[in-house]
Amino acid sequence: MTALTERQQALLARWLPGAELVEDHSWPLVQTTVLQLETPTHGAVIVKAGGPADHHLRRELRAHREWLEPWTRTGHAPRLLHAEEGAKLLVTEFLPGTLVEGHAAQDSPDTYRQAGELLARFHAQHAETVGDWHSRLACRARGWLERSHRISDGAVAALREEIDGWGSDGEVMLVPTHGDWQPRNWLIDHGEVRAIDFGRADLRPRVEDFARLARQDFTRDPRLEEAFLRGYGHDPRESDLWRPTLVTEAIGTAVWAFEVGNGPFEQVGLRQIAHLLG
């Protein structure tokens, strides 16, 4: 566990005496260490530790403290066991299952029906309105374009023109959102879908949790979209927020992937931009 700071290691030694490393689940493109440990007191647990520039642990901890109860009470998300926000460290119980991404369940409509039902339950627990979401979204999109990327000059000009025309602010409803709702953050266990990874959780419009599925799984098989909407109960994308959400998502994907050196994922963002610009 050398990737952890001395403070993080000391906290784990106090919280989980006798713990043994089972597997390192860390993703090298982000500054979050994810470890599966076996402990005498809690059994299998997951440890998440943030690096110096990490900003996901704070959001993940907020999600655990404020929004995950609709899922944890039914075993569809892991319960928080220990946390220290200042140390960027948290421990949750381990959820059994296999990642849906790359599994046969990724092509099963029933997986998406369950995922839609889970998301509806998550979104329904709280709502509040803001009057400046369009401005926030435009600011976010322009901010991405100010960073280093390989989006063509012509596409950048077209994107800036579109962003400038996104309309005036008005009341927009925000709900708790997962922020990365897609098969790589779902587990399948004996046919049951569960949710993991809450480092992007925040209050946003409902449609933001549809963007990554619309870009990926919905486009390759319409049955998956139909099943998801059946589980969710309705389609919230019929609003003036849907296209701006997709545009911002595409720009962010292309820019972030370029910054971290993930060429294939960068191409996903560039292709989405080309598709949106027609």
From TrEMBL:
<protein>
    <submittedName>
        <fullName>Aminoglycoside phosphotransferase</fullName>
    </submittedName>
</protein>
<dbReference type="Pfam" id="PF01636">
    <property type="entry name" value="APH"/>
</dbReference>
<dbReference type="GO" id="GO:0005524">
    <property type="term" value="F:ATP binding"/>
</dbReference>
<dbReference type="InterPro" id="IPR000719">
    <property type="entry name" value="Prot_kinase_dom"/>
</dbReference>
<keyword id="KW-0808">Transferase</keyword>
<dbReference type="InterPro" id="IPR002575">
    <property type="entry name" value="Aminoglycoside_PTrfase"/>
</dbReference>
<dbReference type="GO" id="GO:0004672">
    <property type="term" value="F:protein kinase activity"/>
</dbReference>
<dbReference type="InterPro" id="IPR011009">
    <property type="entry name" value="Kinase-like_dom_sf"/>
</dbReference>
<feature type="domain" description="Protein kinase">
    <location>
        <begin position="1"/>
        <end position="278"/>
    </location>
</feature>
